[in-house]
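Summarise this fold before class:
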Amino acid sequence: MSVFIENNRTELIQRCTSKVTKRIQRNATAEQLKNGVPMFIDQLVKTLEAEKSGDNVRGKAISGPSGGNSESSSDIGKSATEHGKILLNLGYTIDQVVHDYGDLCQAISDLAVEREVPFEVDEYRTLNRCLDNAIADAVTQFNVERDISIASHQSSDINERIGFLMHELRNSLGSAMLAVAAMDHGNLGISGATGGVLKRSHAAMLKMIERSIHEVRAKNADSSERGVFSLADFIAEAKQPALLDAENHGCVLEVAAVSEDLQLIANRELLLAALANLLSNAFKFTHHHTMVSLKAYAVGNRILIEVADNCGGLPPGNAEKMFAPFMQNSGDRSGLGLGLSIARQSIEEDGGTLTVQDVPNIGCIFTINLPMH
C-alpha cells in the first residue's frame, strides 16, 4: 500500500483537492489545498513503511494502537499533533480536519478499486488505524491550540483595556495634582478657575471608573452618553487644565477664538479626554519655550480641532505608527504609550477621525475631524 500511495501521490492529491473544492461551504484557501493533503499522505506512508517490515511493536510505536489508548504518544500522534497546529494556522475548522482525513482514505480506496490493485486486510486495518489515531490527535491539538489562541487574544484585549483606563486616570490625576500645586503656590481658593480644574479632574476620574464598571456589567457602548454641546464652551473647558500643563512643561499655549454658534454631537467626556491627550502629547514633545496652538473651527459641515506643536517634525514613516497601542515615541518611558491610540479610538467612536500632519523641521499638527451638529 505504501508503494501504491507513493506511486500515485499526485493523483491522490488531485482527488482529495477535488473533493474539498466541491464540498458545500468548504471554501478552502489556496494555502490549505497546497499544504493539507500532502501532509496527510506523508504521515500515512511513514507508518505503512514501518509496519511493512513486520515489526508490529515498532508499527504500534509509530501509528499507535487501535482506539488510540496509549500512555505514550506515537510517532504519527506527534506528527498529527504538530499538524493540528499547522491546520489552525491555515484557517481550518474542526469539521474540515476530520473530513479532509476521510477524503484521503476514500481516495486511496477508490483508486485501488479502479486500478484493481489488491491490498491485504492488515494494510486496510493499518490504514484505518492510522487515520483514526491521526484524526484524534490532530483534532485534540487543534482544539488546544485554538483555545490557547482565544485565551491569548482575550488576555491582550483585557490588558489593553486596563492600560487605557490607567492612562486616562493618570491624566486626570495629573491635572488634579497640578491644580492643587497651583492653588497651594498661589494661595488660591477652591471657588476659582484653578479650583474648577481640580473639581472637573475628580469628576472625570469618577466618570471613567463608573464607565468601566458599566462596561463590565453590561458590555455596551457609550453611544447613550452622546449629546449636543457648544464647541466654544468645550474648548474653554479644555483650556484651563492645558494652561497649567503648558506652564509645567515650560512652553506657551495659544488658544484661538471659537465661533459661539458652532455645535457638535459627541461623547463630551471622551472627546475632552482625547483632546487632553493631544495637548499633553504636544507639551511633552514641543521644544522648550516654544508655542503649542489650539484652534477649533468649521469647514463645510465638519468641525476641525487642531493641536499644533514645535517638536521639529517626525522621522520618515512615523506618522501612522504614533497611533499604535503601547507605542512610546520618546526616551521618556514613564507612560504606557497609549495616549494617541486612546484619542483616536474615542474620536472614531463618535464618527470622526484623528490624523497627523508632519511639518518638516517645524512640528506636527494633529487634527480632530467630527460632524457638525
